[in-house]
Amino acid sequence: MKGNWGFTLLEVLVAMTILSFASLAMAKLQVGTLQANAYAKRRTIALNFAQDRVEKVRSGLVCSSSSLTYGSLVFSLACQSVNGPNNTKNVTVTVTWSDPTQQSVQIQTLI
Question: Cα(2)–Cα(5) distance, rounded to whole angstroms?
Fold first, then answer.
């Protein structure tokens, strides 16, 4: 009696097809994760840049525009300060950058 000890060619091809689809799905998921991580990093840089400017204005420096270069990206900061009641200031800081579309973050506070 001779037993069947292997897989047929059709079984191997089906298994390889399923494995290739699973691998492609994992690769797409990895690419999406890397893109989201890069976006979060650039947004964090912009928010830190804006928060630093708010703290400088809070310490008495003049609200002014500036820019920050990080790698190949240029973050542009626009600062606006409006005097309010009771010797307060309404400070709005906006940071914009292109990645590849125009992105921006804004912090508004009362000092």
Answer: 9
Residues in the chain: 111
Distance (Å, whole) CA 53 – CA 105: 13
Q: What is the DSSP string of the chain?
A: -----S--HHHHHHHHHHHHHHHHHHHHHHHHHHHHHHHHHHHHHHHHHHHHHHHHHHTT-----EEEEETTEEEEEEEEEEE-GGG-EEEEEEEEEESSSEEEEEEEEE-
**pTM for this prediction:** 0.70
pLDDT tens-digit profile of 9-60?
A: 888 899 999 999 999 999 999 999 999 998 899 999 899 989 988 888 888 8
Distance CA(71)–CA(34), nearest Å, equals: 17
Q: How far apart are CA 63 and CA 93, in angstroms?
A: 9
